[in-house]
Design goal:
This protein has 118 residues and is an all-alpha fold. It is built from 7 helices and no strands.
Amino acid sequence: MSERRACKAMGVCRMTIRYETSRGDDHDLRERMKALAHERRRFGNRRLHVLLRREGHLVNHKKLFRLYREEKLTVRKRGGRKRAIGTRALMLIPMAAMTAGRWTSCRINSPMAAGSGF
């Protein structure tokens, strides 16, 4: 089967099949980035980008971040603030306060109102 008919059957553009990447080899940049990351363990990709730029490596920050992830140099995140765990217990209302009529809203039904002359 020809390339044209195969691409048409798959529903793919022929230029997509013929595309070859032109990405260069970044071996020296990767090695220097790994060396800096092992030397300064708490530095992330942004601070490494500054150090590499000072040394003369002109590299895009997006490309550097891609290489940083590919080399698995990500810094472990620190723990956050400690918070209370679980749900809080409800406050219990004492039964003695309920029988004294303190919590009722109607004077007629209140045990206190019956004999107090309201």
